[in-house]
Amino acid sequence: MRLAVCLSLVPDPATIDVDPLTGEIDADRTLYIMDPADAAALELALRLRGEGDTVIALTVGPAAAEPVLREALAAGADGALRLWDESRSATKPAVTSLLLATALRNEGLPDLVFCGWRSLARGSGKIPALLGEYLDWPVVTDIARLEIQAARVHFHRRLARGDRSEGEVTMPAVLAIAADGVRLRYASLPQLMQACRTAIPMRDLPDLGLSPLDLSFPASTVHAVTPPRPRPRTIFIPDSSLSPHERIGQILSAGAAPKSNTVLEGSPDEVADAIIAFLQARGFLEQPA
Amino acid sequence: MRAPKPTDHFDVVVVGAGPAGSAAAIVAARAGLNVLLIERGEYPGAKNVSGAAFYGSAMLNKLIPGWWEQAPVERYICRRDVILISPTTAVSLDFRSASPDYAAPPYNAFTILRPKFDRWFAAQAEAAGAFLLTSTVVDGVIKERGKVVGVKVRRDDGEIRADLVIACDGANSFLAQQAGLQRRLETHELSLGVKEVLGLEEAAIRERFNLSGNEGMVLEYVGAITDKARGGAFLYTNRNSLSLGVIAQVSSLVETGKRPYELLELFKAHPAVAPLLRGAKLREYSAHLIPESGWEMMPKLVASGMLVAGDAAGFCLATGLYIEGINYAMQSGMAAGEAAIEAHRVRDFTRHTLERYTELLWPYNVFTDFRAYRHAPHFVNGERLQNLYPEMAAASFERLFRVDGNAKQKILPLYLKAMRQSGAKPRHLIADLLQAARSYLW
Amino acid sequence: MVMTTHEEKMRTVRFKVAEEPHIVLDPEKCRTCAAKACVCVCPANLFVPLDDGSVLFNYEQCFECGTCFLVCSKEGALRWTYPPGGFGVTFRES
Ligand SMILES: Cc1cc2nc3c(=O)[nH]c(=O)nc-3n(C[C@H](O)[C@H](O)[C@H](O)COP(=O)(O)OP(=O)(O)OC[C@H]3O[C@@H](n4cnc5c(N)ncnc54)[C@H](O)[C@@H]3O)c2cc1C
Ligand code: SF4
Ligand code: SF4
Question: Would the CB atoms of B285 and C1 count as touching at under 8 Å?
C-alpha cells in the first residue's frame, strides 16, 4: 500500500503578534510549525503503514518550507517531495491542489492521500475537495479514526454537536483527517540525524509538465453569502414545584440536573439492564424498535 | 554540511549552541574535525537570554572577519552610563566616545538579541562543517572506565559516541555536575535576571538617548532599584526596541521574598527610568540564571574525554558595572576547540593532554581577567555598595544642588554629613574603598 | 503600555507544551516545607501555596531557568529536568 500525506508549514497562531506600533503583523516574531491537523494525518498514516507499505510526504512551498518535510522524514516518512513554482510568493488552494495532484500522478498514484482537515492556515478545507476533483477520487472529510480492511477504508467521522458517523470507502481515496488528540511521534535520534542530512527533491512547473497557464485560475467571485440561520434558543424553565433555592440552582446550572447518584444493586445482569434502561431513557442509546 | 551516518563516531560532540558551543564548534570544524553541535532549543538562541551587550567585537573579528556586517546586530555602543540610584534620585556617570576604538570597525561593543544572534552564530559553525542538531536535549554523559566517551540524548537510540565532549550547556551546568566536575551550586553564586524587550520607534530612541544613526547606548543601574535585594539593573538600546532587566542574587531574593517581576516594575517606575520608556510596548518577557561568582565557582574544567566552557564553567564576569559573559563564553569555547584540535592531532583525549585547555585559557584572556577581577563579586554584592553608598551619593548631590536660601556647602562636608546621617562608618568606607581598588584598580 | 502585570508579561512568551511535566514536586515534602522559597523566586510565578500547606504547580509556562531547583532545600522534593528537545519555552527576542 502506498500512502501520500500532504503537509503544510503554517504560522504558529501563538506567535502571530500584531506590532503594537505599526498595527501590522510582526513577521519577525512569527514561528512556523507543521499544521497540527496535518501532523495528525501523518501520524495516522504512519500507524497504518505495514510491512512493505510506504508513506511519502509532500508539501507545496518555497525552500523555507523544507523543515516540514524534514520533520516528516524524522518521524519516519519514507520519502519527501517539495513542489513549487519559483515565480510565486504564495499559492491559492486551487494551485496547491493542482500541483499536488499532478505530482502524485507523475510519481505513480498512491492508494490513499491524507490531508489535515480544517487546518490552521486553510481552514476552508478546499484542498482535499479539489484534490478529489483533480484525481477523480472520493473524498472523506472530518475523519477522527480509521481502519483498513482489504482495499476498503472503514472510518469514523466527526459531525456537528459531537455526533459521529461511520462509513466505508474503497481505495483510492482522499482522506481529510481531524484527529484532535493525535500527536506526531517523537523522532528517534538516528532518524532525526538522517532527516537532517537528506537532500529533499523539488519539482517545479517544467518538472511537473505544467505551464503557468494551467495555474491561472479566474479570480473567484462571491455571489451571495447566506449565513447559517441561528438555531432557536431553548429557554430553560425551572420546575415550579421546587423551592426557590433549588429553582435558582436549576437556572444557574442551565437546567442540567443536579448530580444525583443512584447506586445500583443486584446481579450483574440486572445491573446491566438497569444501566441500559437509564441510557435509553436519556437518549444516549436508541430505544429498541 | 558533511554527511555522517547516524551511527557515526564523532571527533567532538559540543553540547549547547550558545556562544561558547558555537565558537568551539567553529574552531574544531574548521580544522577538519568531525563535529556534532547539539542544542535543545527549537533553534539556537531559543532558550537564551542576555542583556545583551556584546563586548567581544575585536575578538570575534579574528574568528569571523567583518562579522558585524553579516550578523544580526542592533547598535554599536558609543555611550555608557553608570547610575547610582536612591528611591527618588539618580547620580550618573556618563561616558561617550567618538574615538575610532568605539565608533569605527571593528567597534568596541554591540547590542544584540540572543535568539537572532545565536542562530546566526550557530549557522557559522554549520558553514564550517559542523553538524547542528537542534530540538535535542542531552541527558548526560556516557562514561566508560572513568573516561567520558559520549553523550546520551533524550530520543530513542539516543547514544552518541565521541572522542571528546565539550559541555557548553550554560549556567545550570548539569553536565559538569553529572560528570562529577562541578558540585551543586549555592544560591549566592547565581543571580536571576528578568528581562523585557520593549518596542520603541527608532526616532524616539535616537532622540531620547541622544544618538545618531546606528549609535547605541547602555545604562547600568545600582542601588535602590532592586529594593533590598542585592543586584542591579540595565537598560540597553536596540534598533527599534529597548532591552531592560533586573538582576538579583538568588539568595537575596529568597531572604527578602521579593518577586523578580515586581522588581522589574519597580525599576521601570523609577523617576530616572520611566521617562526613557514612555510609549514603549512590551514585546517579550524572559528570565535566566547568571553565574556570578567567577573564580570561586569554577568547576574542574577537564576530565578524560571532556571539557567545560562558557557559563557552565562560571566564565561570566559580573563586576557590578556590567556583565560580560558572551565574550568569555566565546573565548573559552575557542580555547576548548583549539585544545580539541591538539588532542586530535596526537589521538590522545586523556585528561593529561586535555589540560592544554587550561593553559590556553590564559592567552585567550579568560583566566587573566577572572583572576584580575576575582574580588569584584564580593565587593559588588556587599550590603553597603548595594544600598548605602548609592543612597549617600544621591543624598549629598541632592543637598548640593538644592537652592533653598540656606548657605551653600562644599562637597566634602556634605558628603560627611550624608554619611553620618545614613549611619555609614568611616572605617567601613575606607575598607570598601580599598576593596574597590583591589577589585578594579590593581 | 510600559507597566505590565505578570499575566501580560507571560502572554508575550511562546511555549510549546510537552505532554509530560519536566518538573515534579513531592507533595508530602512540600507540605512540610516551611521556607517555600520556590514560591517567591519563580519568574513565571508557577508555584502557588495553598491553605493546607501544599504547593500547586503547573509546568506549562516554565522558563526552564532552574531557580526553583537551586533554592529548594528539601532533598528530593523537586525533581527537575529540561523538557524534551524542541519543547518548552521559545524566546524570540530576548
Ligand atoms: C539577564 C542577563 C543579562 C546578561 N547580559 C549580558 C550582557 O549584556 N553581555 C554579556 O556579555 N553577557 C550577558 N549575560 C551573560 C551571558 O548571557 C552568558 O554569559 C552567556 O550566554 C554564556 O554563554 P554560553 O554559551 O556559555 O551559555 P548559554 O548562552 O546559556 O548557552 C547554553 C546553550 O546550551 C543549551 N543547552 C543547555 N543544556 C543543554 C542540554 N542538556 N542539551 C542540549 N542543549 C543544552 C541551551 O539551550 C543553550 O543554547 C547576561 C545574562 C543574563 C541572564
Ligand atoms: S519545591 Fe522545595 S522549596 Fe518549594 S515548597 Fe516544595 S520543598 Fe519547599
Ligand atoms: S525553572 Fe524557573 S520558570 Fe521554571 S518553575 Fe523553576 S523557577 Fe519557575
Answer: no
Are B343 and B349 within 8 A, CB to CB?
yes
Q: What's the residue count for chain A? A: 289
Q: What is the pTM of this model?
A: 0.87
Chain C contact for A21, CB < 8 A? no
E-state strands within A131-196: 139-149, 152-158, 164-170, 173-177
Whether A187 and A234 share a structural domain: no
Q: What is the mean pLDDT of residues B353-363?
A: 95
Containing structural domain, residue C52: 22-89
Where residue A61 sits, what CATH number does that domain have? 3.40.50.620
Which residue has 510565578 as its cell numbers?
Answer: C45
Q: Centre a 10 Å sphere on the Cβ of residue A123 and count the other Cβ atoms it contains.
A: 10
Q: Is the pLDDT of residue B1 over 70?
A: no
In this prediction the ipTM stands at 0.97
Domain that includes residue A19, residue range: 2-221
Cite the beta strand spans of B25-89 per DSSP E.
Answer: 35-38, 53-54, 73-85
Q: How far is the CA of B187 from the centre of ligand 2 (A)?
A: 14
Q: Are residues A153 and A16 in the same domain?
A: yes
Give the Cα-Cα-Cα angle C4, C5, C10 (nearest 5 degrees). 95
- CB B131 to CB A193 under 8 A? yes
- Tell me the three cell numbers of residue C8: 501580560
Question: Omega into A172 within 30° of 0, i.e. cis?
Answer: yes
How many C-beta neighbours within 10 Å does residue A183 have? 12
Chains touching B, CB cut-off 8 Å, 3+ pairs: A, C
User: Which chain B residues contact residue A189 at CB under 8 A?
Assistant: 6, 136, 153, 155-160
